Amino acid sequence: MKFVTAILTLALLAGPAAVQAGPPDPEAILAGALEAAGGLEAFRQLGVIEIALSQEETLSSGKQRSSQATAYVDARSLNDLRLDLPGEIVVARNRDLGWATRNGEIDDRPQTGRMAKGTLNQRLFPILLPFSLTMDGVTLSDPVETNFEGEAVWRVAVNFPEHFFVAPSMTTTWYLHVRRSDHQVLGIEFLPPPEVRQVRSEGVRYRTLKRATLGSSIQLPVQLLLDGIDLNGAPTGHVRVTKMRLTIRGLYEPALFLHPMQLEEIEGSMD
Questions:
Q1: 80-121, pLDDT tens digit by residue?
Q2: Which of 40, 8, 263 is nearest to 130 (CA)?
Q3: Angle (CA) 126 249 125, round 5°
Q4: Residue 213 CA neighbour count, 13 Å, CB half
Q5: Dihedral angle of Cα 174, 179, 182, 187, to the nearest 10 degrees
Q6: Is the pLDDT score of 175 beyond 50?
Q7: How far, in Å, CA of 146 to CA of 154, rounded?
Q8: How far is it, in rounded angstroms, from Cα 64 to Cα 66?
Q9: Which pLDDT does position 16 carry in this prediction?
Q10: Angle at the Cα of 176 (from 164 to 160), degrees rounded to 5?
C-alpha cells in the first residue's frame, strides 16, 4: 500500500511538469531552426547572395518543362530581392518599392509593384528557408507534435500578410515541419484556400533534398523538391526539382535593386 501511495504521489508531482513540457512556443522553434541553419546574424553578414536556379518539372498531365533564372538576395533584411527571368525580364523590389522591366523598358502598370513583390516572395520564400521566416509580416503559431516523412517534428502554422504572394492559391496558412531532435527544417506545405478550390484544388509540399554550406556556417537548400498534393495530402504526380548554385557577392549593389529611374537620378547627381 505504501508503495502504491508513493507511485501515485510521484505521478501527481510529475503531472504539472508533464503539462508544462508541451510544444515550445513558436518563437523558440524559429530560434532553433535559425541556429540549426547557421544563425540569423551570420546569414545577414553574407550581404548579397546570387542564386542560379534551374528547374525540371513534370505536370500531373505528364507534360514536362524546364526553366532557368537568376536571383539576387540582400540577406541583411530580405527586403531587396531581384529575379532575372528568360526573355530579358527583371522583377525586383527595393524595400517597399516593387518594379519590373522587359527588354530594359519599365513596366509602369499600376499593379506592377504589388505583383513584383508577390512574385518574388512566391519564388524565393521556399528556397530561403528558414531565414525567409523572418521576412516582414510572416508569423508562426500553433505548434503541434507530429511526424513528417517518418521523422518526429514540430508542425508549425506559418501565416502571411495580405498580398504576400501573387497567386491566390498560395495565399493561405502554410505548415512548417521542424525536426524535433535538431530543429532542422525538413519541409513546408499548404493546401489552397476553400474559395479557390473549384479553380485550383492542388496544394504543394516542399522538401529539401540537399543542402550546402555558404560562408563559414550557413546551411541553405541547393536541391528542393516540390510535390503537388491533393486535398487529402496525397501526391498528384506533379513534381518539380529546383537546383541552386549559390555565390556570395557581399557588398550591396544598388544597380541590382534600385528602380531604374531612381538609379538614374542618383547617377545624374554624381556627374
A1: 999 999 999 999 999 999 999 999 999 999 999 999 999 999
A2: 40
A3: 10
A4: 5
A5: -50
A6: yes
A7: 6
A8: 7
A9: 44
A10: 20
When the candidates are 3.40.50.1110, 3.30.428.10, 3.40.47.10, 2.50.20.10, the CATH number that belongs to 23-270 is 2.50.20.10
In contact, 62 and 50? CB cutoff 8 Å: no
Q: Which three cell numbers stand for residue 16?
A: 504539472
**How does the average pLDDT of the chain come out, rounded?**
91
- What is the tens place of the pLDDT at every residue in 202-232? 999 999 999 999 999 999 999 999 999 999 9
**Among residues 198, 179, 199, which one has the least CA distance to residue 188?**
179
Return the amino acid letter for 185.
Answer: V
